[in-house]
Amino acid sequence: MRVSYKWLQEYVDVNISPQELADRLTMAGVAVENVHYLGEGITNVVTGQILKIDPHPNADKLVICQVTTGEEDRLQIVTGATNVREGHKIPVAKVGAKLPSGLVIKKAKLRGEVSQGMLCSGQELGIDNGLLPPEQQNGIMILPQDTPLNLDIVEYLGLDDYILELDLTPNRGDCLSMIGVAREVAALLGVEMKMPAAPLEEGEERVEELAAIDIQAADLCRRYVGRVIKGVQIGPSPSWMQQRLRAAGIRPINNIVDVTNYVMLELGQPLHAFDYDKLAGHRIIVRRAKENESIKTLDQQERPLNENMLAICDAGGPVAVAGVMGGLDSEVTAETVNVLIESAYFDPVSVRRTSKALGLRSESSARFEKGIDIGGCVRAADRAAYLMQQLAGGTVARGVIDSYPEPVVEKTVKLRPARVEHVLGIPVEEQKIVDILTALQFKVQREGENLLVTVPTFRPDVSIEVDLIEEVARVYGYNQVPDTLIYGPATQGKRSENQQLVYDIRNILVGCGLTEVITYGFVSPKVADLMNLPQDSKFRNVLVLQNPLSEEQSVMRTVLVPNLLEVLKRNHNRQIQNGAIFEIGRVFYPREGQNLPEERLVLAMVFSGYTEKSWNSEAEPMDFFFAKGVVEKLFAGIGLVEARFVRHTDPSFHPGRTAAIEVKGKTIGVLGELHPNVLENYGLPHRAVACKIDLLDLIETELQKPRYQPLPKFPAVERDLAVVVKQEVQTRDMIDVINKAAGKILKSVSVFDVYRGAQVQEGYKSQAFSLLFQAPDRTLTDEEVAKQTEKIFRALNKEFAAELRK
After folding, report:
1. Which of these, 468, 371, 374, lies nearest to 413 by C-alpha position?
2. Superfamily assignment of 497-700 in CATH?
3. Interhelix angle for 377-392 vs 255-267, to 10°?
4. How far, in whole angstroms, is CA 41 from its chain's centroid?
5. What is the CA angle 794-800-806, rounded to 5?
6. How far apart (Å, rounded) are the C-alpha atoms in residues 35 and 13?
7. What is the number of alpha carbons within 13 Å of residue 330 lying toward its C-beta?
8. Options 3.40.50.720, 3.50.40.10, 3.40.50.2300, 3.15.10.40; which CATH number does 202-403 get?
């Protein structure tokens, strides 16, 4: 929002400088981003008139102008502009003049002819080309014929003005108007605000006899006001109005359209003027657009509409897109005689969605999106009708059509003065509170020890007590709140235990050579089929997005591994065959009867191909056992010592090459080679191993923090034990039996050989274990070690019918 300092003074007496005003507004929560002077850098430029134009004798594209500025001496000025004619009034930069670009005008010779100044374009005077009529955008600025000579161009064009550029928060739509800002300034300075007058002179013909309004979508249009003015004469608006529009960044067009823009800037109510005679049936119908309906808007673009958009229609079809832009077929032109004024309240969400869908943003839509004053529609229509009558003549029809199906009831909020002091931490007199709220045009009544405050319709953002306290605080002055030292217990900023655990997991996996990826939480509904999930799988119960980005991202993910397979596939298509990646992300499970889903934090890893070959080591396949080693390294790093890998079946994984990860009988994850069908579905040509771990389940387990242990003082003794057992006996079960039988002196056990062949009968396997014995307080004897080894063998024999291999 661009606020003209001079225009603002029409509504409120501002007795401070523009910069000081900007500071006061900013401290009151109405942030001013910039303050600049429109006439910055312009000196010695005056109004003048071209008396005679002669061709340049030495240049076809130049002409010689004899110019007067009202003084005795004429000036000879050479120009290349093609839009100047004899008799035109123009801005003249005399010798010694300065322009905003830094250019200093000097007496010069152009192709042998003396030039004693320069004729100025609007752009050279610092006026944006887009704010000038098309015929002047690429040439000299042509002034009205009644322009007096030798006037300072800065004063004549209204450039002796400061512009305050506001950076408003979304809740302060009321400050998108001069009156809204004037209201704030009046409250801050403690002065009265003057509302603009609209003393209408109405004719005898009643408006109900000339037009009708039918609201068919009351949820999107809560109020629609119409006025009719007949017999107008279209022409340019007066210079004072053009100057104010340009100061606000709007290009003047004609007196009727300029009035609608002027009132929008003044009161914050977007208006639209229809050519009354172009409205079929002289009837306005406010309805949702029909499918495949379209409209050609004022920018001459054909815009497709749909059933979610609100259209303003006549008996023949759409004539405007509600709150966004009018239609070309009903626009006000030089031939317009009768005008219908629209002043309405449209639903902010509807306008925002329509504006975004059409890729069309306007000054009107910006105001409707933030919410306008539903109570000010009639006032704005009256003000526009008054200005049109003053500037374009005509007769205003008697009365106003006000279609208002459900009038808004003003909100009343209870305010406790004691609460104001409690929240702000400073005492504020009750009368001061009343004065501040009254200055902001809230109605205040006393009710015992409390205040009942009626909120005006132009402040829809105020609804609870703390909102009123904020209004008091910002006008009273945040700078009046005394500085105090921070008190209370000091706490160290650090990660929580769970955050630190996730941080450690990331570091460990990166240290193992994995690469972290981050993928979207939105996935395709086809993921369940690609992952071989059965129809009754709980992972098929997904949360469907109401407004998805695309069909491929239309549901929330319930599994994380497919996202990593997409990454592998993308890399494979770019000739990157090897990959070890992981992601820590959330999955989402719908909860019956609740809007929000259950969110679970999950770790997923995928391995494919080979490790990198080095000068001293060969490439190693990243198979099941490689992945299992990474998982074991992870568990060791975070202190999870009771994890077991148990044979498991999962439809997404290869049968026979999959293990469940269990802690105290509870499954917290799955590790295994992916099913060949899954690999084929994702177009992966070679095997891949995946792991998924529910981190919330992992966090609930008892993790052992690392503890200091002294280095052993006594030597260890190693023994090998090879036994023959049936093939179906699981190694994990055998290790559990060994640990249980050996007691505390067994420090570690590992498998160093598994053999199936000619020396072992069919259906059996030979499995060899390396046993490491060590005592913290003594050197073990051979007899002790032999005794424990024998005890281990007897336990294996009893549990699995194991026999010593011979």
Report:
1. 468
2. Bira Bifunctional Protein; Domain 2 (3.30.930.10)
3. 150
4. 38
5. 65
6. 19
7. 31
8. 3.50.40.10
The residues, any chain, with a CB within 8 Å of residue 238's CB and separated by 6 or more, are 391
What does the pLDDT look like over 248-303, one tens digit per residue? Answer: 999 999 999 999 999 999 999 999 999 999 999 999 999 999 988 999 999 889 99
State the fold for domain 43-156: OB fold (Dihydrolipoamide Acetyltransferase, E2P) (2.40.50)
How far is the C-alpha of 327 from the C-alpha of 350, rounded, in Å?
18
Between the two ends of the chain, the Cα-to-Cα distance in Å is 93
Percent of the chain clearing pLDDT 90 (strictly above) = 76
Same fold, 2-38+162-189 and 411-477: yes
For residue 219, the SS3 value is coil
CATH of 2-38+162-189, one of 3.50.50.60, 3.40.50.620, 3.30.70.1350, 3.30.56.10: 3.30.56.10
d(CA 201, CA 98): 48
- E strand or H helix that includes residue 690: strand 688-694
Task: State the pLDDT at residue 469.
Answer: 95
Amino acid at 190: G
pTM (2 decimals)?
Answer: 0.67
User: What DSSP character marks residue 303?
Assistant: E
Question: How many C-beta atoms lie closer than 10 Å to residue 169's C-beta?
Answer: 12
CA distance 766 to 748: 20
Q: In 10 A of CB 393, how many CB atoms? A: 13
Q: What is the pLDDT of residues 394-406, one digit of tens each?
A: 999 999 999 999 9
Q: How far is CA 385 from each of CA 224, 271, 388, rounded to the nearest angstrom? A: 16, 11, 5
In which residue are the tokens 């704030």 written? 184
